[in-house]
Design brief:
single chain; about 0% strand; mainly alpha; globular
């Protein structure tokens, strides 16, 4: 932790803010997603959202998903046929408005081809895999654009797993400042290292009396503001 940060905002203030958010989430009875409620269209939209969410701000990814929705590029017909044209149309929609638009258009096209090219579906894939870590490993290895963090986000958002942690830069910064990891990392490239840090975070959240998904969200909300304000990660 930098001296600049320590002089501006004590760690106790951050911790109390996070715990306050956890209480608010409990009082609001935050509804956790249920996998059964998701259609195949919903699952594909969420997966695309996670691909687009890598290395960009949350608001940027949300806007990109809306643009694709507006052009009907997330519907069944578009994602299951004529993959070359699908990539071209995604690229044209994102060009000039979203960073990495060429890369993401190609990743979304290849993800669609991998999942739907032989008549498969995300629902079939999820139904045939019961262990969330096995499912995450499959997503990382087989779906372009999904690393450990984005795969974890997808599985949590659709209600497939409730003990998964989304270790983005905000959560990793929290873990470093509070002594859960010794190195301040901005991303985690391997599944093994991800699971090691995830275990630490899950144990930490449970020790404070909160579920991992609830505590993860509270940490993300608070640390996002703190990092924007103090810029101590540079």
């Amino acid at each position: 932790m930098s001296k600049t940060f320590a002089s501006q905002l004590p760690l106790s203030v951050i911790k109390n803010a996070i715990l306050d958010i956890c209480i608010i989430l409990e009082e609001q009875e935050l509804i956790i997603a249920s996998l059964e409620a998701y259609s195949e269209n919903d699952l594909w939209r969420e997966l695309v959202s996670c691909i687009l969410g890598s290395r960009v701000r949350f608001e940027t990814a949300c806007a990109a998903v809306r643009w694709l929705d507006d052009m009907c590029l997330l519907c069944h017909l578009r994602r299951t046929s004529n993959f070359d044209q699908y990539e071209t149309d995604i690229l044209a929609t994102l060009s000039g408005k979203y960073p990495f638009y060429k890369l993401r258009a190609n990743q979304i096209r290849r993800a669609a081809e991998s999942l739907y090219g032989s008549g498969g579906s995300i629902k079939d894939l999820l139904d045939n895999t019961v262990d969330f870590r096995e499912m995450r490993q499959y997503l990382v290895s087989q779906i372009p654009g999904l690393g450990p963090k984005q795969s974890s986000l997808f599985l949590r958002n659709i209600g497939y797993a409730d003990s998964v942690a989304v270790l983005d830069v905000h959560v990793l910064t929290y873990m470093n400042w509070f002594g859960l990891t010794t190195a301040l990392e901005k991303s985690i490239p391997t599944i093994h290292k991800y699971e090691t840090l995830e275990n630490s975070f899950v144990e930490h959240s449970l020790s404070l009396g909160y579920s991992p998904e609830q505590f993860d969200l509270a940490v993300w909300l608070v640390m996002r503001v703190v990092r924007e304000e103090y810029k101590t990660w540079d």
